[in-house]
Amino acid sequence: MSGVLADLIRASPRLSSPATAKRRLASLMREAGAAPLAEFLARALLRDLALGLADHSPYLWGLVTEDPARLARLLGAPPQLSLDRLVADMAGRRDESEGDLMRALRLAKRESALLIALADIGGVWDLVEVTEALSRFADAAVSCALRFLLRENAAAARLAIDADEADPERGSGLVVLALGKHGARELNYSSDVDLIVLFDPQARAIPEGVEPGPLFVRVTKALARLLQERTGEGYVLRVDLRLRPDPAATAVALSIPSAYSYYETLGQNWERAAMIKARPVAGDKAIGERFLRELSPFIWRKYFDYAAIADIHAMKRQIHAFRGHEQVTVPGHDIKLGRGGIREVEFFVQTQQLIFGGRRQRMRGARTLDMLAELHADGWVSAEAVKELSEAYEFLRRVEHRLQMVADEQTQRLPFEALELTRFAKFCGYNSLSRFSDDVVKHLRDVETHYARLFEHAPGLDVSAGSLVFTGVVDDPETLTTLQRLGFRRPEQAAETIRGWHFGRRLAVRGARAREVLTELTPALLDAFSRSGDPDAALAALDAALGRMTAAVELFSILRSNAELRELFGDILGSAPRLANVIATRPHVLDGAIDPARATLIAEGLDESLVARRIAAYVASAATIEGVLDRARDFAAEEMFLIGVRLLSGVLDPDQTGRAYSALAQGITGVLLTHVMAAFALEYGHLPGGRVAVLALGKLGSREMTAASDLDLILIYDFAEDGESDGPRRLGAGQYYSRLTQRLLAALTAPTKAGRLYEVDLRLRPSGRKGPVATQFAGFVQYQRDGAETWEHMALTRARVIAGDAELAGEIEGAIAATLCARRARAALAKDVRDMRALIAREKGDADPWDLKLVSGGLLDIEFIAQFLVLACAYDRPAIRDVSTRAVLVKAGAAGLLTPAQAEALTNAHRLFTDTTQIMRLAVDGPFDPALAAGGVKRRIAAAAALPDFDALAGAIVEAREKAREVFRDVLGTGKRR
């Protein structure tokens, strides 16, 4: 096609916001440097095209406005010549500095992006020409960056090539293979590039004494960085190196012998399909061509390969299992992965290539459209199928490009909202959404129809990994070897466990559908377990969970469709069986763990008011109090799981985790109190001047809750005058608030169909176990002043109001402050604290070294020291008060109430014990026994305490306990060592 680009433009988008687009164009023309555009934009078609960019594509309009002269230059030259110039410029670069190269490549990318978009949107280039141009630029960019790195390493004597040579790639011993759309010269507008980097370990370019593996790994990492690192000028290409053999276990650059060995012994059918499109794009292309020729027997089997159909069809079914891909639709449809999408056209072609390509050389091409035509020429596909699939492929690829041109995002999903979808339809050149939707649905259904016909007689799915076979009654030797390679210490036991699943030994997998999904999932699941740190424990935990579940299809389907979730699931099973139990009963909680929208809630999870608002909004739709209770349990279960996952992954540290659990419990309590009071009032009415507040003590009061904490609460009420409530059923004040408290207690503790919430302990109320469950404010004040024992005042040091009437809350806080700041006899107080500690030791024991609360020198000793200091010193130093034990210790050290050494010993011990306890409570139910705990659990606990291993943790705990106990003796004046 000859002629300058401006003369070739013959199409433009429809405008959605004409006034805005015209204003933006007018603003552009007032900019310095825009004068050369005036002549071009005087033409109606070019002006319409420019308005379309201003209206629909912030990315392209940004490219226009940042350099109007560039747009004029592109419009004034033949498009192919402009592309040739860009490629030639990159081929001839000899940059001295990395910064110069990175800037030049990024500017070239921006110019190519604008050029190709203009030729695409303007109807100048067809789909093949557009994708060829995108791929050609990618080839040139990869090659240019690699040449710079090769010259750099040659100059440093790490490669024996001439640094001044025009083509340092040839003979370098390194080759870059492009796969996927890049390899097929079918790149989309904002695609990543799938690369595999291989090297010849015997290449002459490798100097004696230089290890080729580490050298070329560094080169590969540098290559990826040069191309994808974002700077002020943007990026060049997104690089994906994960299509190399076993990417979780291999370096980013592989030796060719290693790659051969992998494909010959472990290569899977999906890798055969991927290699159909492979081609050398940079480096020593000759060795790349030789590698692919020698790999040909792996890719192209001599006999018809129906097993490949089952494998690739399984991949497609997995994609469909992901939400949003189940049916043909328009709003929100993924035109690549969804029903009738681009991937189905590609699979339609690739499956038949794998089947027939072993005998027919002409079926070994990379381009989808070319191979569709070849299938018809060879008599395998009807002319109608080729016509409809080709038209659909071209249409969907053009739509894909428009989606990505909006903001240079790697997306294939149509907008959900009607307004945005209508705007996008106009960007695609349509006057109406209905016409656009009709065309989208037609092409999707055409693809779906032909794809379904292809698989009408597909063989059943089976375990296709080859070395993972769990049929029969005896162990397969290769499977045992594979399990050992995956990290299983007891491969025979693992094989028997999985074989038992297929035999239906667990109720959850007795259904045919569950076993079918399990068959597809098992290889990927075992691979995820291999990275969990303890695959044997992970497998055992899943087996135990299946034993408690009545059905597992939902869980298996979720795991099958998402690799990230499988990794998370394996990690949880290997190091936190308690969390695995949650998944067993609520598989959907896994979705929330990787939902990007939930990531923004991490900071909010530490904000008590925001958490309360989220809970209130979540339960608001419930029509009954029973519905409120169920929704509250659903919210709490998912949120507690997410908090645990964030602790497990290091997103939250143990202190933040305690605050998050406490904020959740506080919010749940407050929201349920509101709804319980409203429901209670419908039956019993209100008391004149009645007020209620909930006082939290213990771990909730100090914001140090764990996954296993219960709630220590006191409900305090007040009212204006004696009398009865004004509802249909009247109650006196005492009875009214006792019943209200019982309702709240039931709301927090009763099991419903949605599960349980918390255990609640009301024993710290003034009347203890025997008296009323609710406490009148005046009685609370009097009791704390005249009747409370020392241990009750100790508990009060961590008390705070978490819900209820704000005015009453202030009065309660004032009464607590007055109580804690009263003058006390230090010696008598110390004796009371010592006696209380001794009583607890006699009744509950203090010898278990892993009960970090009760053990001598453990958390209880440290908390008692802090509580003693508050009670003994707050009269003179009220600022020492704090619900946080550690905060009290820090303040006591600053005030000279503890020596610096004592304060440091106690705060360090408290941090160590709480960090360790937090992860122990998350990982296991019940007491922690190192002899019974899995290795992954112990590694996780040690890591939470920032220690290298479990033995180091055990030693650190012993040392910290000894120091804490010594301070306890010194501060409390026991005089004797225990």
Short description:
About 60% of the residues lie in helices and about 5% in strands. The protein is mostly helical and about 1000 residues long.
The total strand number stands at 10
What ranges have pLDDT less than 50 throughout 5 or more consecutive residues?
314-326, 456-466
CATH topology of the largest domain: the name is Beta Polymerase, domain 2
CATH architecture of the largest domain: 2-Layer Sandwich
CATH class of the largest domain: Alpha Beta
Helix content: 55-70%
The SS-based structural class is: mainly alpha
Specify the biggest β-sheet.
5 strands, mixed
Looking at CATH, the homologous superfamily of the largest domain is: Beta Polymerase, domain 2
Could you say which overall geometry the principal axes of the C-alpha atoms support? Answer: globular
Strand content: 5-15%
Question: How would you state the average pLDDT, rounded?
Answer: 86
Oligomer: single chain
Distance between the termini: 94 Å
Q: How many domains in all? A: 6
Radius of gyration: 35 Å
Tally the helices: 43
